[in-house]
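Handout, section B. The chain below has 646 residues.
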Amino acid sequence: MTYHGSILKKGGALLLAGTVVTAAWGGTALPTAFAATSAAPSNQTSTAPALAGKAPVNAASFVQAMEETAALAGVPFTMDQLSGATISRKDAALALHQWLQLDAAPQSFKDVPDRSEYASAVGALNAAGLMKGYTDSLFLPNAVLTASDVSILKDRIYNYIKPFVLEEATIMDMQTAMTQGKLTSKELVQQYLDRIAKYDDQGVSINAVLNLNPDALKIAEQLDEERAAQGPRGQLHGIPILVKDNFDTKDMPTTAGCICLKDSIPAHDAEQVKKLKAAGAIILGKTNLHEFAFGITTSSSLGGQTLNPYALDHYPGGSSGGTGAAIAANFAAAGMGTDTGGSIRIPSSFNSLVGIRPTIGLSSREGIIPLALTQDVGGPMARTVSDAAIMLDATVGYDKKDTATAYAVGKIPSSYTDFLDINGLKGARIGVAPELIPSTKAEEKAVADVINAAVEELKSLGATAVPISIPNFAEINKYPSLSGYEFKFQLNDYLDSLGDKAPYHSLSEIIASGQFDKTQEQAMKARDARDTLETSEYKDIVLKRTQITRDSLLKVMADNHLDAIIYPTSTQAAGVIGKGQTSGANNRLSPFSGFPSITVPAGFTTDGLPVGMEFLGRAFDEGTLIKLAYSYEQGTHHRQAPKLTP
């Protein structure tokens, strides 16, 4: 096997001559004993591991360590015989270069002559992130390797040579594998297609994916060629993504799960889809949803009932339940959902995922079949906070076709991945409101137990849990969602935007056709009966509900100096199919205020059902929420893949 040079960050330290310096996030954590920057006085016995780590190693021990690393990774090992009581850094570099067959790379160390026999080895190892210099300009080729150095080398090289494993791979895992030549985008797409065929179309039959992109493999091949010719566009280059089937896609039908739109192919991509494609992402397919995003159980006339991969007789949440189940079951790297009341966060909670509902105006809603634009957003659903942050980076920004995005101008950071701070909870003040963690019913107690344990975890990770009460919470919850008011008018506008290709031109025509989920007939007729939005009732909701929710949240956060408020995303876990599903009212706080929220896995009930904890913050403060959620995720690692789709 040949390993191509990598410039991606690997491991958790820089390999130096007698000094180990901690590097940026993104790698495997190293033992504390090897992270010492200097030796302590010899009379301090607690430093013995660090001092032992500075002992030189002989050549035989070095070769044995590398052979063990190869065996652990399951890859071939060949290295020229080395001998001696010590081994220099230049000799180690030559031996590693010969074994790994790294691509040549230039080196710029002042103490490594360009014509020396080891110059190309040093350059290749440095470029691959396996063996760095003492400083940016000094490699110290004659310095001897210590036990600490070899331990770090083993960690670095193992992560570099280990085979790519699709299940639970992160976006950066995929990028690293492609950079190292272990994987192509075309191979990645095929692996996901194979999993969809195995687990979605047959076997456990999750029933999460509605349509697959027939050109996905061709697009992947083109992106592979582009990568080879000029490098990747960014972190999403060649990465397969699934999107909820209410995002317009010009190369696949956009149906909202309704038979009435089964052949409707829009002329243009939704703005967020367009941004994903521009970033190099591959839209692998479209996922099932609760028809027209009306509910939280994900059943549609076109796609039927989607199942929860953690318990096939339970709901996956909704309305983005197809995306939730698919990403949980590793059918794509990440996905997109929409959220009007809880439709990103509830399925993320029920599928042990991270879901971000961004501030209204951070991302464009243009090209998304609307439910209620006063509350609608589109956002990422992923297995990790870092993947969700990468997806958010690609999809935010101003769009002249969605006026709300003008509010975000000047409020978007250079990258949300800059907030991935493992220590982000240290010193944070987190509001905890008892009224948001009900436990009267058995179903609620199962979730409350997980969340109460999560609060203790937050404290153990350095946060202060501040008891609060949400002002006017009862009054806020008296207000309804605006989906019952706006849907008819905004759907009609969407159908009109399809032009002559629109299969129907109004909600009235769809109802008359009978081509929809009959369980939603009364809800659709009630919405169709509204004649106008020019009513005092509607205007009062838009103005007063928004104001009281925002003012109440901002006041309690200011009074208590809070960074965020936490609560269970859903007060009940996934329900049994056929017996109904409730989620509580917590998820209203974000859409009613327009403020952002992020749900992150908090653990599982005693019945093995995932539970999500939601962080709510101030407008356009997604960075802080990502920092807090990432720190919690990395401190707990609650995410587990479903055993039914190994």
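Note. The first strand starts at residue 13 and ends at 15. Compare this with the example in section A.
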